[in-house]
Specification:
Blueprint (H helix, E strand, L loop, with lengths): L1 H10 L11 H17 L7 H15 L3 H16 L5 H10 L2 H15 L7 H13 L4 H11 L4
Helix pairs in contact: 1-4, 2-3, 2-4, 2-5, 2-6, 3-4, 6-7, 6-8
Length: 151
Amino acid sequence: MVSFLKKFFETNRLDDTVAQADPETKTRVATCAVLVEMANADDEFTKDERDHIIEVLKDRFDLSQDEAHELIEIAEEELQGSIDIYGFTKTIKQNYSEKERIRVLEEIWKLVYTDGELSGHEDSLAHKLSFLLGLTHKQMIDAKLKAKGKQ
């Protein structure tokens, strides 16, 4: 399945209006892209962050290790071809329930704290993503506290 995705996305961008990928596929790529963007927020995409994203993808989408790696590659290509993250968050917002979007935000915060530190860029991007995902400030704070293990 993922090989088909790679082939599809070699010729179509996620935010291309003629893209024919099904909503589930677009949402998987968008979710991964948001996580990869967060991992790059402090200009250091570490092995621990990559491993965390792989585990999230395997768990959330029932993927194999290789499929998760391939999805990250596709998401990275999509990020390079986009001008911002709005298209990705819009896809997530359109296809996930509020509960699922909160879960994505919790994973974003867990990713932020993978290295035990919160940079200003990470904090700012997490707030922006929360807003773009249509979540409230309280939901954002609750997700952050849950990720830190304080809730």
